[in-house]
């Protein structure tokens, strides 16, 4: 560039200088129409920008394909506590050590009553939650010591609509009396057994949700109708 400017300054080369000026103008015009190249930009980046300006779209690496799950299962809505929500008729499945379904439990119906629908008794708290339950336990010869699943009222908890956990007793005397008046659900599900029966819980409010725990861990939730 300096050589070009020195050449322009010589009177004897006016025609050549005019040509040089035209060349400089063309060069500057080309820069304004295209990409402005930063002198600090590496050569590779400059080449990439030039190809992009010419109309060649940059390509990105193809995303890896997701692996197909071995067994597809429906996505279940979770509660405020992160527990899977079940509705009457939905089957809860617990797997054994061999990853095969071992325990299945279905709340076939769930209703709330101000008094016991069987013997007319009144609750100690606010209402009775009456659950009809079908459950089965597939015995596995590979498990030497299979513990039963407790179905007693102590394994159930009540949460209000404000998500407050009730710390009182759900298995009150009125609830037990109401349950025993019908086909009472056994207090535990043993390996190799299938059970059907009624579970009655004495709840502090007619609205809210019930959770079932396995030992000390909640595993599922049902909303009261």
Helix and strand topology:
Elements: H1 2-8, H2 14-33, H3 43-53, E1 85-86, E2 91-95, E3 101-113, E4 127-137, E5 149-150, E6 156-159, H4 173-180, E7 188-189, E8 194-203, E9 209-214, E10 217-223
Biased composition (Low complexity): 44-72
Region (Disordered): 39-75
Overview of this structure, please?
The protein is α+β, with helices and mostly antiparallel strands and about 220 residues long. The protein has a domain at about 85-140 and about 150-225: Immunoglobulin-like. It contains 4 helices and 10 strands. The protein has helices at about 1-10, 15-35, 45-55, 175-180; strands at about 85, 90-95, 100-115, 125-135, 150, 155-160, 190, 195-205, 210-215, 215-225. A hairpin with a 5-residue loop joins strand 2 (about 90-95) and strand 3 (about 100-115). The longest helix has 20 residues, at about 15-35. The chain is globular, with a radius of gyration of 38 Å. The protein starts with a helix and ends with a strand. About 15% of the residues are buried. Mean pLDDT is about 75; it is low at about 1-40, about 45-55 and about 65-75.
Summarize the helix and strand pattern as letters.
HHHEEEEEEHEEEE
Identify low-pLDDT runs.
Answer: 1-39, 44-57, 63-73
Query: Level of helix content?
Result: 10-25%
CATH fold naming of one domain: Immunoglobulin-like
**Quick one: biggest sheet?**
4 strands, mixed
CATH class annotation of one domain = Mainly Beta
Global structural class: alpha+beta
Distance between the termini: 85 Å
Number of helices: 4
- Supply the CATH architecture of one domain: Sandwich
